[in-house]
Write a structure and sequence with these properties.
The structure is a single chain. Helix content is 45%, strand content 14%. With 337 residues, the chain is an alpha/beta fold. The protein has helices spanning 12-19, 23-30, 38-51, 57-64, 79-83, 85-99, 113-124, 142-148, 173-186, 202-215, 231-244, 256-268, 287-290, 302-317, and strands at 69-74, 104-109, 130-133, 153-156, 168-171, 192-196, 224-226, 250-253, 278-280, 297-299, 325-327, 330-332. The chain has 3 domains: 12-55, lambda repressor-like DNA-binding domains (434 Repressor (Amino-terminal Domain), Orthogonal Bundle), CATH 1.10.260; 69-169 and 302-327, Response regulator (Rossmann fold), CATH 3.40.50; 173-299, Response regulator (Rossmann fold), CATH 3.40.50. β6 (192-196), α10 (202-215) and β7 form a beta-alpha-beta unit. It is built from 14 helices and 12 strands. The strands form 3 sheets. A 6-stranded parallel beta sheet has the order 2-1-3-4-5-11, with helices on both faces. A 4-stranded parallel beta sheet has the order 7-6-8-9, sandwiched between helices.
Amino acid sequence: MASTDSTRKPTIRDVAAVAGVSHGTVSRVINGGHWVSPEARAAVEEAIRTTGYTTNHAARSLATGRSGSLAFLLTEPQHLLFSDPTFALLLRGATEALAERSMTLVLLIADTVQEQANVERYVRAGHVDGVLLVSSHESDSLLASLVAAGIPTVCTGIPLGEAAAVPNVSVDEIGSARMMTRYLMDRGHRRIALITGPNDTPGGRFRLVGFREELGDRFDPDLVEQGSYERESGDVAMTRLLERAPDIDAVFAASDVMAVGAIEALRRAGRRVPEDVAVAGFDDSGLAGTHRPPLTTVRQPWSQISSTMVDMVLDVIAGRPRGPVVLPTTLVVRESA
């Protein structure tokens, strides 16, 4: 029921009375829902709705020393946020996971040295409670700086270099690459090329490892080209591969975006997909299903990655350290291979 005193804002105790729980339970629901039964949480949420209670975030921040928000940190050029659909999927999933906890997500982009310095100052000032780092390069110093400053931080992918022990959520990069390579081999392809990502990223490094391991003695370094996860880089890499090895009959691109670029290069060269050259990608980010031909790819569990990252960083904030989480992928077969 709504408060009968229209001049007084409903309080936590009002919500507790309506829900039939303690005000401590209401507080736990408002602050993330940890250690609250589903029934009690549902009762509190209904009581909040009927009483019209709203959290005084400023007062809560002063009392708890927390901002009630997390940073979604992308250490890539700004245009990739819009051109690479994987970042949008992670952003949406993290936003939804935080909305369930009445928390907000702050988008931060830090590609240049100046941008990274600005982000570090912003985070150190306490504007966010923790960081979801959705891209990392071994050469970047920002991750190590955040960890050294005691900022709760969780990464997508296994961080490389000195920060390798940072909590992270990843997929089985090596196993996934082996799975796709084996699929192409089992389809009878003999000259299989790889367009890999940057070697200072976990996806770029470990997908190459899986590809090489699965091919074994058949691995040919001349059939490997490095891209940057951008469409144009897939086009350029495929063009170079065709110049060196015109007899290629399959190509595995380490992202769907690069796979699309590779198909454009193949079409210019008069090669049909999949009749002349099979093409496979990685991610299943939405682009794979709508492209013509639809892409055979490795599906990453985007929603699960996002929600697990949020759970993990909130546990770190609460003083409950978490170990790395590795999630499975799925082979999705479509017309391109």
